[in-house]
Amino acid sequence: MNNDPCITNQKRKNPLTLREGFWLPTFLLNSAASFPQNFHAREDDVVLTSPIKTGTTWLMAISHSLLHKPKSNDTYNADADVLTNNPHSLVPTVEFELWSPTTNVNIFDPTPLLHTHLPLPLLPASAAKIVYIARNPRDTVISMWHFFNAMIQPLPLERAVECFCSGAHPFGPFAGHVAEYWLESRRRPETVLFVKYEDMKRDPKMGVLRIAEFLGRAVAGTGEVEEILWRCSLERLKGSEVNAAAHSAYFREGEVGDWRNYLTAEMEEGIHRSVGVKLEALGLFF
Ligand code: A3P
User: Fold this and answer.
1) Is 10 within a domain?
2) Which numbered atom of ligand 1 lies nearest the CA of 143?
3) Closest CA relative to residue 112, chosen from 69, 71, 67
């Protein structure tokens, strides 16, 4: 593996550090380390997990909608939540917002729904139910490239692909991240649900029903599923005032196969060689 943590290391900003074989943003090391120490899952707790740029935001919006079902006589408006908050504000990412003795904020207390990009070996042993979302690596790298162009600084695509293939990108290597959760979902299907972005796009109703069933959340039929999907749709989230104003980088095309518009045959071959074959061996994505 090339040990140059390249994607976010432009001008020495946002360096990465290797932990348990994965590259973590160095500024997150302390909170990542304190997650296993401070999180003791209760029965109903749910942890969403993902590499970056694989559909996290969509999964957050759907899971929030499912787990905040209004009770009868309840005036709570689940739609208002999703419409007026970026999904990342509704579902805290532990390594970014973790409890610390200095801030004295314990995000574990009020919420049963959390998210992390941390790889499986860095999760607390007592992690509650886990829903993991993964995506074809070719679309992931394109999504990542656009995201870093918007959020950090423009990067030539060749360089982004090189970094992705080397594994030295935030929470990389991608293949290892995906493979570990995939294998865990096979070992403990009642505790870990493995969701593919492509499956969600192809049959979103089935995707929502699968997540709901795993979470033990009864749905009131197709009408409710359709409403959740409408509420959490890319178009709607992208167009909401809160997201358009400050979070537009999280919402782009949302297309399966968008990589065909960008990757050369040589880049595609490189991705297949360094990332694809490992996933292909598990029957994933190729
Ligand atoms: P593209 O860059 O291919 O468009 P993450 O949420 O993990 O950062 O992933 C971002 C990707 O998910 C982006 O893909 C983004 O457009 C897509 N996305 C965001 N919200 C979505 C939604 N509600 N439905 C489907 N895709 C969504």
Assistant:
1) no
2) 2
3) 67
Whether the predicted pLDDT of 136 surpasses 50? yes
Ligand 1: which residues within 6 Å by Cβ?
Answer: 50, 52-58, 61, 139, 143, 146, 232-234, 237, 250-254, 258
State how many domains the chain has. 1
Number of H helices, E strands in the chain: 15, 6
What is the value of pTM for the model shown?
0.93
pLDDT digits (tens, 9 = 90+) for 193-237: 999 999 999 999 999 999 999 999 998 888 999 999 999 999 999
**153 part of a folded domain:** yes
Q: How far apart, in whole angstroms, are the C-alpha atoms of residue 116 and residue 43?
A: 18
Residues taking part in catalysis: 117
The model's confidence at residue 171, banded by pLDDT at 50, 70 and 90, is: very high
Query: What is the per-residue burial (b if ≥16 Cβ within 10 Å, else e) of 227-237?
Result: ebbebbebebb
Give the side-chain half-sphere CA count within 13 A for 64: 26
Query: Does residue 42 surpass a pLDDT of 70?
Result: yes
- 240: pLDDT confidence band, cut at 50, 70 and 90? very high
Q: Is residue 4 situated within a structural domain? A: no
Give the residue ranges of DSSP H helices in 1-105: 29-38, 56-67, 78-84, 87-90, 94-97
At residue 194, the 3 state secondary structure works out as strand
Indicate which CATH number applies to the domain containing 61: 3.40.50.300
Pocket test for ligand 1, best of 49, 52, 58, 142 (most atoms within 8 A of CB): 58
Domain interval for residue 163: 27-280
Question: Is residue 45 one of the residues assigned to a domain?
Answer: yes
